[in-house]
């Protein structure tokens, strides 16, 4: 039980209170205002203090408990739109505390209602936590950002020591970081520490704190800010993982090409450390022959697309490596070019393969040119003696007709053989020359509008006259066939070859049939025979040069006819294919577009 002072002391004390200009009140053990001075009554309406959070929040009760234990507590609080430096001191009688005296010095700043609302709005809408602690480290002020970040309400936080919210592993670390500030060895402290939210999430917090010093130089507590950098930490961690584990080199440059950031993967490819490149221009590392290929980066907002460039980059050992780089321009809030970000990877192996292929293609081109020259030369060299042989054979044949001899029939037979072989070799030479022109892309196409049926009849009549077994080609026309655009000489050559093959590979069989039909904008021509057919295993090789199926026996042929036919069909934008069964016959299909005009 507390001993109370005598009545005389109480009267003296009451008179003393009335002579103090600042609001002062005496609080009893039940936290009731037992006495107050006139300045207190004039400053606060009768119910304002009792109805305010001043006597109801946990912070006050923590402070009152400390004062009952004999301590004097100072802190800042807002009452009636005024900011006060509050001071609570114990009242003693005979060495025992019988009450508390609360001093309200003049407010540090007085606001009208609008200013107070503005002040509260600003403080509560700052994204960083604004805090104040007392000398023991208990929270005495926190703004709304505290609840937003850590999920604790202000009521359940104020009055509690800040270290209760720290990550357990960081409590000791925090003490060491705060020690120089508490010992006034430095004016502020700034460090990063882990806090734990109400939902047990780890929050990385950047702490900035200064001391709150009283008028007499005593330490009243600390104040400062808490900034949540959890997302920054996570982003930095992800960036570190990416930069150390992704093989692509990611860089940030200014608009002059100087390196502002270089990912660690640069060292694996070039031998440079990131620090060696920062501040240098990436253009300085380009191969001299490649610099002219690099177009300067425009600074218009329209050029925001990713661009790709390939070049040789000088490594630390002065060797060059082929690199492909994607370049992206970034713009500031005013739509002005601000930075470049690049992503690069080695294409050295690709370039080596490409160079090897180019060399191979060049060699192949040279060989083809050499082959074409050889074929042309050889063909022309063959034609000259063949012409002489043919001329001599014709003269001998003329002499035989003039002179009668028992050997005339035998001589005539040998002359026929000579003429036949000359014709065969001439065809081989002509087809070889034509293949050479096709492969060297020297064969020209002269398209014109033609009557297909007329050209087919021309080819049929010419081939019918050459058949010693007197077979003919039958023609079937379905519907009306319109004119189409193609090269007539090419078309005749195609028909001659396919009709000749139809007769040649169907000796003793029924007549070949040509069917012509049109549907929509497509013209289809079928050349069908009933001969030996093509073995299934060899059908995929029929368009290869000098290939002949195994079942042709001694039937004459060069193995070039179908190769030429396919190329001529394609040059006229047509399509060719066939269906064949061995010993049943073969049908070739030719498809052309009707309304195609060139």
Low-confidence runs of at least 5 consecutive residues: 50-54, 297-302
* CATH architecture designation of the largest domain: 2-Layer Sandwich
Could you give me the name of the CATH homologous superfamily of the largest domain? Histidine kinase-like ATPase, C-terminal domain
Terminal residue distance = 119 Å
Question: Would you kindly provide a brief summary of this structure?
Answer:
With 598 residues, the protein is an alpha+beta fold. It contains 16 helices and 23 strands.
Outline the fold blueprint.
Blueprint (H helix, E strand, L loop, with lengths): L6 H12 L5 E4 L5 E4 L1 H6 L4 H4 L6 H11 L4 E7 L2 E12 L2 E8 L5 E2 L2 H12 L4 E6 L4 E4 L1 H7 L20 H12 L5 E9 L5 E12 L5 E10 L1 H16 L3 E5 L5 E4 L3 H5 L3 H4 L10 H4 L15 E8 L5 E12 L5 E10 L1 H55 L5 H32 L8 E3 L1 H13 L9 E5 L5 E3 L1 H17 L8 E7 L2 E8 L31 H11 L3 E7 L3 E9 L5
Parallel strand pairs: 18-20
Antiparallel strand pairs: 1-2, 1-5, 3-4, 4-5, 4-6, 7-8, 7-11, 9-10, 10-11, 12-13, 12-16, 14-15, 15-16, 17-19, 20-21, 21-23, 22-23
Explained architecture:
Helix 13 crosses helix 16 and helix 15 packs antiparallel against helix 16. This protein has five domains: 104 residues, Beta-Lactamase, CATH 3.30.450.20; 108 residues, PAS domain (Beta-Lactamase); 101 residues, Beta-Lactamase (2-Layer Sandwich), CATH 3.30.450.20; 88 residues; 146 residues, Histidine kinase-like ATPase, C-terminal domain (Heat Shock Protein 90). A hairpin with a 5-residue loop joins strand 14 and strand 15. The termini are far apart. The chain is 37% helix and 27% strand. Strands 1, 2, 3, 4, 5 and 6 form a six-stranded antiparallel β-sheet that branches. Strands 8-7-11-10-9 form a five-stranded antiparallel β-sheet, with helices on both faces. A five-stranded antiparallel β-sheet has the order 13-12-16-15-14. About 2% of the residues have low confidence. It is α+β, with helices and mostly antiparallel strands and 598 residues long. The longest helix has 55 residues.
